[in-house]
Write a structure and sequence with these properties.
seven-stranded mixed sheet, 16 strands
Length: 271
Amino acid sequence: MAEAVDPPFDRPDSRFNLLEGWTWIGCYGGYYLQADLLAGFEHGFFTRQWQGRGPEVLAGYVSAGVSVHRPKQVHSALVLPASAACAEPWPEADGLVSDAGGQSLWVCGADCTPVLIADPLSGRVAACHAGWRGVAGGILLQAMAQLEAAGCRRSDLLVALGPAVSGERYQVELSVAQQVADALPMADGRADAMAELERCGALLSDPEPGRCRLDIRAATRRQLESAGVPSGQISVCPLCTVEEELLFHSWRRDQVKAVQWSGIVSQQLPS
């Protein structure tokens, strides 16, 4: 049986141990993270300790008797209904939206942000792999639009952004930051967009000409807020995949293709 536990590693720093708004869940298979904001939904952000176990196995640690849905991720902004991603060959996409109850939706990453979205009124959920291309392409806006088309309201949505690369560790070209900035719904022009990216703490300086540091989760939060999701309904995990080598795979750190999975289960839809 899964239960809340103390952090799985002996670490003195409070940033790791306190994790305000997040809870370590322990079970006979290991540990995974849950966002307190999504406590009403079965979900989990798994670590590298679960290496070799995919969604078909991990789903059983989150919930019993659910169907498994996952895309073949291609760094896009494409979001599909979960029923279109229930068997191999997995369809190419980077986001899924539930269209029935008892569906477990899964995405993976190794520095990009796993984003889980839940509507507490309808029980519908979404899961997105949000790298810079996905954020620039509006993948979360696409997911919310599909939820709205099913009757949800974005002002009711709860959104959890899981472990990902921190801004200090994410050097990108200025052109990349510009594309992310241009995707902010409130931006009126290119210069204003970059200024907005800086104001929200997502654009950090870098000593190398033509480059900057990008906090993709800060940019994602601002995009969500600008799109109508209340700030109090967005939770961001403070853990950095690059810094926490014991916990997470990181492409930036290791240049090895390995990932951790995150998933959420839709609730039975009201008739």
